[in-house]
Specification:
Strand order of the largest sheet: 2-3-4-1-5
Oligomer: single chain
Helix content: 55-70%
Shape: elongated
Number of helices: 28
Length: 583
């Protein structure tokens, strides 16, 4: 279990360089110079924690610390960010004259803020700061990308014409969400030399190891670092959700929501962080984002429109808005989008109505099928839409298992087989009258058994499809028994599949026990038992015949005798008994 001990508190230690850059503004003020710094970083990069550490240090040095947090819901309240700051100062004011001046400026900002020439508000604010900042003042403005236009206008004045007082100003924001006015203000400040920039880049492997208290050689480190994209908040979340995460597909199972434990929950700090952003969306944006969470990486306007049941032009506009607030990001070189991070998608997906979500997956299946999308993509949606509700589900999932086998991914093939069996159980045998899907399932399970040496999967598949096997195969076997063919002189073949399996198919349940066991097989002749054991490895009749140098008809005759001696009527039952005897 990865020990996550107050990861947020350790952010300053991990980001030592950035922390020193912030603390330098306090040194400037102590030397009698005004100083300003912009702190830029993606959501979860550690801005807020660094600002908290800076404020704590400043207070310890005797500074007056004032803080403001921009709120997207206050876009229509002029100057709300600076009103927050001044109200905080009002609570600390120890002189009646200062309180009166603060109230006057607050009223002026609330009534009307205009950065046009002649408006007294910026000058009155500057005069207030210059007259009453003696021992040092730290103003921390957080999430300024969400500030109202009037607050941005006031900030622009303070950056262009710095206050002649011991004032430290820190402006924290998300670069991807910064409006043009904020970017222009900070760029101008950089040109004038009045603003220094500190940027929080993704953590490196060494920093991630320090944050998570892991050894640099721990195999979990690279996987967590990759899945978190070097983001401290996501590292914290994944370390808690997947404490023993050691393996993953090259593209990350996290991307399709199957790489997380079914009982996992988002850490409170991350859930609060994201819910605040999501609550600012209007209902149609929420619907489009929910549809996008169902689609995962297949986020384009046409598909989202079909899943969300909204007009495509409107969806295109809504997707653009979701990209502006950085919940979605453009996929380079394509018109599609992806979520900022899979954990954001997970929170959105988990928060949608379950019934709506299942129907949305069905709509996704329909649109992907119409577009000729690969069966693997349709299987992902089938899995999350109660497999078996549609008679085609089992066929889609079985085809996905075959595709996984062609790609060499035995574990994924086993996963799709297990899901296909669940679909068959739900749909019932009447949806597969010709037993086509059942036979395809058995053939696929046999191939998995041949590749892995593990017969549990084949036995389980045969056991759960026993109804189809009895109806479709017993009559055929009985018809093909015409005469006894002696087995003398036939060359014996080495037993296949008797060794330890190299890779276990973990997603599937173990085979059901067969009460007859090894004692029942003792009634068979040597040739009959040899053929029975080859059946247990998943080989077909023709393959067994080729291996033993017999005709297919001779093998069927031996199988018919075996069925009569063991009192069974199907190949599936024989597989179960062979597996049980080898256990």
């Amino acid at each position: 279990m990865i020990a996550v001990r107050d990861i947020c508190i350790r952010t300053e230690t991990v980001r030592q360089t950035e922390n020193r850059q912030l603390l330098a503004v306090l040194d400037d003020v102590a030397d009698g110079r005004a100083s300003a710094v912009e702190l830029a970083g993606d959501p979860g990069s550690g801005k807020t924690r660094l600002l908290a550490g800076l404020a704590e240090t400043a207070a310890g040095r005797g500074f007056t610390v004032l803080r403001g947090l921009a709120d997207p819901a206050e876009q229509d309240l002029p100057g709300s960010l600076f009103i927050q700051v001044l109200r905080g100062w009002l609570g600390l004011a120890d002189r009646a004259g200062l309180r009166e001046e603060l109230l006057a400026v607050i009223r002026r900002i609330a009534a009307s803020v205009d950065d046009a020439a002649g408006c007294p508000t910026p000058e009155r604010l500057r005069a207030l700061l210059e007259q009453h900042t003696c021992r040092g003042l730290l103003i921390v403005l957080d999430d300024v990308h969400a500030a109202d236009p009037a607050s941005l206008a006031l900030l622009d004045r303070l950056v262009r014409w710095p206050v002649n007082a011991p004032l430290a100003l820190v402006v924290s924001y998300r670069p991807r969400q910064a409006p043009e006015r904020l970017r222009a203000t900070l760029a101008r400040g950089s040109q004038l030399g009045t603003v220094r920039r500190t940027e929080l880049a993704p953590l490196g492997l060494t920093q991630a190891a320090d944050l998570l208290d892991l050894n640099a050689t721990d195999p979990r480190l690279r996987i967590l670092h990759r899945d978190a994209q070097g983001n401290p908040l996501y590292l914290q979340a994944l370390a808690r959700i997947c404490p023993s995460r050691q393996v993953g597909r090259p593209d990350g199972l996290l991307a399709d929501l199957r790489g997380l434990p079914s009982d996992a929950g988002l850490p409170d700090v991350l859930a609060r962080h994201l819910v605040t952003e999501l609550s600012a969306l209007d209902p149609k944006q929420q619907t489009v984002l929910a549809a996008a969470s169902v689609l995962g990486d297949d986020i384009d306007a046409g598909t989202v429109a079909a899943v969300a049941r909204l007009p495509e032009p409107e969806v295109c506009r809504l997707l653009d808005g979701l990209r502006r607030v950085d919940l979605l990001r453009p996929l380079s070189g394509t018109p599609r989008s992806v979520f900022r991070h899979p954990l954001v998608r997970w929170l959105v997906y988990d928060g949608t109505d379950a019934c709506w979500r299942e129907d949305a997956h069905r709509r996704a299946i329909a649109v992907l099928a119409a577009r000729g999308a690969p069966v693997e993509r349709r299987a992902l949606h089938t899995e999350r839409a109660t497999p078996g509700r549609d008679p085609q589900d089992a066929a889609v999932l079985t085809a996905a298992a075959r595709a996984a086998l062609r790609g060499g991914d035995i574990a994924l093939a086993g996963h799709w087989l297990s899901t296909a069996l669940a679909a068959v159980d739900r749909a019932g045998p009447e949806t597969d009258p010709g037993h086509r899907v059942a036979r395809e399932l058995l053939d696929t399970a046999a191939e998995v058994a041949a590749r892995t040496g593990s017969r549990a999967l084949l036995a389980e598949t045969a056991a759960r499809l026993g109804h189809a096997d009895r109806r479709g195969r017993r009559a055929r076997a009985d018809r093909e028994v015409r005469a006894e063919v002696p087995a003398a002189g036939a060359a014996a073949a080495p037993r296949r599949g008797g060794g330890t399996a190299r890779r276990a198919v973990r997603a599937l349940p173990a085979a059901r026990p067969e009460p007859a066991g090894d004692a029942a097989l003792s009634v068979l002749t040597g040739r009959e038992r040899e053929i029975a054991e080859l059946v247990g490895t998943g080989l077909r009749t023709r393959e067994i015949a080729d291996r033993l140098g017999l005709s297919a008809r001779t093998v069927e005759v031996h199988l018919a005798r075996t069925y009569r001696k063991l009192g069974i009527g199907s190949r599936a039952a024989l597989v179960r008994m062979v597996v049980q005897s080898a256990a």
